[in-house]
Amino acid sequence: MEWRVPLLLCLISVGAPALDFTRDVRPILATKCYACHGPDEESREADLRLDMPAKDFDTKTFLHRITTTDPSDVMPPAKSAKSLTTAEKDTLRQWIKSGANYEPHWAFQPIRQSNSHQGIDSLIHARLIQSHLKPAPRANASTLIRRLYLDLIGLPPPLVACELTDLSDERYATLVDQLLSDPRFGERWGRHWLDMARYADSNGFLGDGLRPYAYRYRDWVIQAFNEDMPYDEFTIAQIAGDLTEMSAGTGFHRNAALNTEAGVDKEEARHQNLVDRINTIGRVWLGLTLGCAQCHTHKYDPITIRDYYSFYAFFDNTEDYDDAQTKAPSLVEVSKNRRQSYVHIAGDYTRRGPDVMPATLSALPAQVGNTRRELAQWLVSPQNPLTARVAVNHIWSKLFGYGLVRTPDDFGTSGEAPSHPELLDWLATEFMRHGWSRKQLIKRIVMSETYRQSSVPYFQTDPLNILLSRQNRIRLDAEILRDSALAVSGLLKPTIGGPSFRPPLPEDVFDVGRSSNWQASPGDEIYRRSLYIITLRSVLYPTLTTFDAPDAADACVRRERSNTPLQALTMMNDGIFVEAAQSLALRALRESPNHLEKIFHLVLNRQPRVEEFSRLQTFHLEQKARVQQSGAAALQVLGAHQKTLSSAQATEAATLVAVARLLLNLDEFINRE
In terms of Cα–Cα distance, which of 517, 579, 511, 582 is closest to 542? Predict the structure, then answer.
């Protein structure tokens, strides 16, 4: 699991500036005070509200209550398990001393228009200078080429690309353009979006019925990325595509789990489905935890329960629809017998509160109109301060491992403040100014010196790299790890789009749940990219979940990254990696007389250093002696390939399989520098 360290502590360690309310004070009030002294009137204690300035705020009493040692008087009370730390008390004491000034929450304020001469590097470097840090040097050519390929198309570079040693700015820019126009770009970046869309090929719940045409939405997403569909159009197509002749996009709403069990309360199931849609839109487009207002006014953010059900009302008169020709799952607006929406008291759909009409959040600029199309247009309106910020933060996070806001699905008061607020707003402004083009934004980022830095840590300060004095070293996503192994071995089948396939699975996977009669897809279908592996909610592909692939239960805005012994065992023993090692060994044997150099170059996308090659040669000799000593038993590692080789070839091939397994398990292969 990732360690989350308060941004305040990290910034203190690198020479933080003077106390800042947004960065230092509000996070303490939000996590420790707002639950009882925040927006929710029903749970507010002592008629004290700390999420906004109040004329009758008694700073002397406040300071006494947070510093007293009297357990009956101290705030927060000990029973709340939210006691303030010494550092937090000192911060609040300093805030009171400086006048207890409030600032509006940054995320709800208009996007600030930055000067056109500013850019990524100037804004990053300004913070580094302020903290007495220097940027890391540019990474070498082989590292940059591998980084670009993995980040933009999700595959390692071919040998011809790795041979570039003089990566001039012009060549680098040309390579960026080639990768952005590569059809595999849509596969890589489509996967990021499918995480947030909670895409799956089955309904979930006990029956987990198959959705044979769910892939139509997946393929639509891939195409949208490849065609660089503007993000505002992309948004409208998914929120209200049925109203704008782009109904395939509304498959977004059909991705959630669906209870089709006999005896299920249909109205309750419909309600839960709508709740999922509202909560997902909040997390994906607005970066807000709207779901917290489903049962009561939000404890931390200015979102009332009425706000929640007014938002809910946009979808209350929709129903699922499957296109007769394409079978694509989509959504359609009901024209007859329309429902009147209302507040669900305590989140219970059977307890009717006040009636509501479709409306957006009261804390943000209002929209005009009450249709889903107008909701979608409000989401991407320049007056909406959240959508562009959230979108550029998502893109930044895929290229650096973390967003400028490290809580990408919580831009609210309990989330983290942006590490570089000016840069976030500059990117959001440029994103909208250039027609919401994701490809242009990605190119702008990867062309920056900040992106091209080495990932080697040169300084002991700023251990979490908040200030971006270097690139981040990132463990490959589960799908990219499998795809990379297939690519370097020569097994990868490059077909784009179409129905999902079933990989081979061990029998014990089916000991739980109703799924049975699993038949792996025929021929080389099982070597397609991991994006196309069928996602059955009751039978998740264990190779991917081991490396933290999401389970499609909810929108996954940020993947966790764990580091476990099971991952190493999977890389060594899982069937797909064993096959990749076999094919990689045979490829090296077939394509070059210099087997070791060839296999090293294929896996790590560079030539070995002298000391590395020496160790590899030693390992090769040791393994060859073991194979020769073990005889026929050692050749079983070749599987069916053994029959196609002579005795001498088989011995060398079995030795190279051991070398291949070693290299595929190296940290350098598993991570992107």
Answer: 511
CB of 596 within 8 A of CB of 616? yes
151, 452 in Cβ contact below 8 A? no
CA distances from 121 to 13, 458, 559 (A): 22, 18, 27
Examine the domain organization and report whether 331 and 241 are in the same domain: yes
Q: Where among 313, 344, 379 does a domain terminate?
A: 379
Which domain does 26 fall in, by range? 7-103
| 341 lies in the same domain as 390 | no
Predicted model pTM: 0.92
The string of pLDDT tens digits covering residues 189-234 is: 999 999 999 999 999 998 899 999 999 999 999 999 999 999 999 9
Q: Element (H or E) spanning 415, and its range? A: none
Q: How many domains, in total, are found in the chain?
A: 4
Does residue 286 lie in a domain region?
A: yes
Q: Helix, strand or coil for residue 347?
A: helix
In a domain, 267, yes or no: yes
Q: pLDDT digit string (tens) for 27-70?
A: 898 888 888 888 877 778 888 888 888 777 888 888 999 999 88
Residues 389 and 255 in one domain: no
492-529 pLDDT per residue, tens: 999 999 999 999 998 777 766 566 678 999 999 999 99
Maximal CA-CA distance, the chain: 90
Distances (CA, A) of 424 to 348, 374, 386, 407: 39, 26, 11, 14
